[in-house]
Prior knowledge:
Blueprint: E1 6-10, H1 13-25, E2 31-35, E3 41-43, E4 46-48, H2 50-59, H3 77-82, H4 95-109, H5 114-124, E5 130-133, E6 142-145, E7 150-152, H6 153-159, E8 166-170, H7 172-175, H8 183-189, E9 192-195, H9 200-209, H10 213-220, E10 223-226, E11 229-230, E12 233-234, H11 239-245, H12 252-259, E13 263-269, H13 276-280, E14 285-289, H14 296-313
Helix pairs in contact: 1-2, 1-14, 4-5, 8-10
Bound molecules: guanosine-5'-diphosphate and calcium ion.
Amino acid sequence: MKRRPVVALAGGVGAARFLRGLVQVVRPSDLTVIVNTGDDRDFYGLRVCPDLDTITYTLANRVRRDVGWGIEGDSFQTLAALRRFEREAWFQLGDQDLATHIHRTRRLQQGASLAEVTAEIARAFELEVELLPMTCDPAATAIEREDGSRADFEEYLVRDGAPDDVRTIDLSQARCATPGPAVLEAIQAAESLLVCPSNPLVSIGTILAVPGIQQAVDLRRDAVAVSPLIGGRPVKGPADRLMRAVQVEVSSYGVATLYRSFVRGLIIDDVDAALTERIEQLGIAVRTRPTLMKDSNVSRDLAASAMEFAKELC
Ligand code: GDP
Ligand code: CA
């Protein structure tokens, strides 16, 4: 199969906002997105892939604008009814969203791989972008807290509210997984390799933990990344808490230290311009841009900058 010239590594909401811009400056049929599956889990007996779904719904123009996940205008009647039986129904899945998970679960039970089902769902939403799960194997991220308790990522994030007492991030399942079909080939064949503004540890870090992927990106060492931190804070989510837990500076400089083996260019926000010199000392070129993607014009301009930067550096 013909490989696509632009490849992006992606988590969920931050990535989807960036990709919404990227498809305005790159033909969707030229783009492959390799997506984190470390947050995947069964809810109510159904297989849910939060990051794949967020990207699918966003690129299909169906995503809930207020939160960045789920389907716009979806109702939650099934979940409300389910609470009669399961008081612990804390993970929000809308009625239309549930159809995606029912279909995925049934196809997986029939023996289809996650890569096949992902392609089917993307087709059903009329996406031209190719979405590849980082792996078809189980790769659940586990979070261990200071009190010794363990939770998988969505439990830590949604059920427990992402507290600031993380002891370790356990990627051991991802470290035993095999890259999804075409993942390594896509990285090797790409003309431009981009890293979306996603959680560097539990979205991008998870993808890189799958054996072979880190080596493939290190071998090129020409990726362009967009920092997910602005002014030393994540736009949303627990990147700050998780970076503290692994003793990485909570800033775009800290992101650069995590990416230094494979990223040649990093786009940071204008407000972080003072970090430029320190990041350049790591051997990474820096561009400053507005990176808060409050609308699709900012996403488009940011994506255009990332593409230009990647072409310049290659
Ligand atoms: P999740 O699976 O939804 O947590 O998705 P990601 O890992 O893709 O996104 C989380 C990261 O995206 C967080 O660290 C956010 O700071 C970052 N993010 C979200 N929106 C934006 C944005 O508008 N600009 C930038 N630069 N980062 C963003
Ligand atoms: Ca996620």
